[in-house]
Amino acid sequence: MKKGVLYLIPCPISEQTQPWDVLPEANRAVIDSLDYFIVENTRTARRFLSKADVKHPIDALEFRELNEHTVAGVAVEELVRPIAEGRSAGVISEAGVPGVADPGALVVEACHRRGIRVVPLVGPSSIILAMMASGLNGQSFAFNGYLPVKPPERAKAIRFFERRARSEGQSQLFIEAPYRNVKLFEQLLQTLAPDTRLSVAMDLTDPEEFIRTLSVAEWRREKTPDMNKRPAIFIIG
Asked: Would you state the pLDDT for residue 72?
């Protein structure tokens, strides 16, 4: 029996951005060919596909969720079973590209174990876009996910990543829950050395996009940008 294909389908990072303003037109044919989607959130995925004006009626499509509530192992295997039996599927994240800082990596890994072809489609990644626009070292960089929430542990992590950035020349990227951006930014300015460079990229691909790289000393002289509840990438370099 011929196996299906797993397509990794990017979607806009910002809800204010129309799909075909940031996605290649070539993605349309792939999306239109599918009726089975493995998604982080069904409601968000349905809204994206509706805005993308997909060929099939939304109610005719099958959606299965893969997120932090999904039980690894058996549950993931059930998601992959139809693909192993010949039905192709698309993975859709909440925003940006699937499989990067995203639970979609679980189904990708399961497909590789079963010898199922995995095809990543082109689309916006907040990590790559922020790195591109930062002016920091794009030859060597690391994405570190979330920093600890508690201030003492977070300060320790900040100092650790600063040492790595300064000793290895490796740009250090991380994110925070949008409602905690201000507290993180304030602690970065308190903890980092004055000559360390800090890049902040918010609302990427949105009309209100903000990207700026300054030394910590320069940031301390600036008014704190409006960053509350705005998706952001922070980079130490």
From this structure: 61
The maximal CA–CA distance of the chain, rounded, in angstroms, is 65
Cα–Cα distances in Å, from 66 out to 73, 146, 218?
12, 20, 42
Which residues are 62's β-sheet partners? 36
Global pTM reads 0.91
For 93-147, how does the pLDDT look when each residue is reduced to its tens digit (9 = 90+)? 998 999 998 888 999 999 999 999 999 999 999 999 999 999 999 999 999 999 9
Average pLDDT over the chain, rounded to whole?
95
Helix 181-191, helix 151-168: angle, nearest 10: 60
Residue with tokens 């960089």: 141
**Residues 216 and 193: beta-carbon distance below 8 Å:** yes
DSSP 60: G
Label residues 195-229 b or e (16+ Cβ within 10 Å = b): ebbbbbbbbbbbeebebbbeebeebeeeeebebee
Contacts of 90 (CB under 8 A, 6+ apart): 6, 7, 8, 9, 30, 31, 34, 36, 37, 38
CA–CA distance, 188 with 178 (Å, rounded to integer)? 15
First to last CA, the chain: 51
Amino acid at 83: I
> In 3D, which of 53, 56, 51 has the Cα closest to residue 15?
51
